[in-house]
Amino acid sequence: MDRTIDSAACEGADATRLGAGRACGGRPSQQDDLVCLHDPASHTRLLVLADGMGGDGAGELASAGVVAVARTLWQGGSWQVLPGALFLEQLCQDAHLALRRCGQGMTDAAPHATVVALLLKGTSAYWAHVGDSRLYRFERGRLLGCTEDHSVVQARVRRGELSARDAARAADQHELLRGLGGDLQPQVDHGWATLRAGQSFALCSDGVWEQLSEHELAQYAAQPDLAQAATQALSVALNRGGENGDNVALILVRPARLQIGWLGRLSRLWRTRATAPRPLPPA
User: Global pTM?
Assistant: First the structure.
């Protein structure tokens, strides 16, 4: 079992704002991959996590392929001009096509992957996902929302056949209804929220959320040092997974303090003046 945690994807990052890592666990190869990209001038971040599958090394190629597409699009700068949701849709569709092309040269394997991506831009957060890699959104230790898995088990939960508590242990947990690299063009689920003080996010593969509860992830995401928190969370997931445990990958992020533009300052000044006590008229 390999318990070594690889945190190279976020080297040089502010540990109070970002923590990330991955580990093989009890699997012979690492099929989880992630990347954390940052533009300091605009305080924009792109965080992408993928879980590959396909056998005979295809899983490793698949997750690495998703990350490579994310890097290419980031360097191309389309995130600067496209609406957030449209940029993430492009990322998912381009990654799907890249995996399809990669699979054309294989005879005994086919690269497929899940993906979850988060774009923090200005005062907004945009996210997208395909498969069962998840995004959790927290505010001051409280869960605000979580993406819904594209899996057979989640469909059973939705129909009331299985409780959410039992879903992580179900025998058909890993049967997906959507993914990147298959014959069908993927349907991408999107989300959006206005950033507020005290918010944080967690992106993770199934190897993490199967072992850590929402409450535990919320506690890790609320710690002052997110780099240390991510390492601690991954260590716990590895221990609970045991000798035959899955790969684990996790990103924790806390958005930078919001910059109030001139319009925001003007609005705040107007509210201050409007609510200030007025002097009484002379008697």
Answer: 0.88
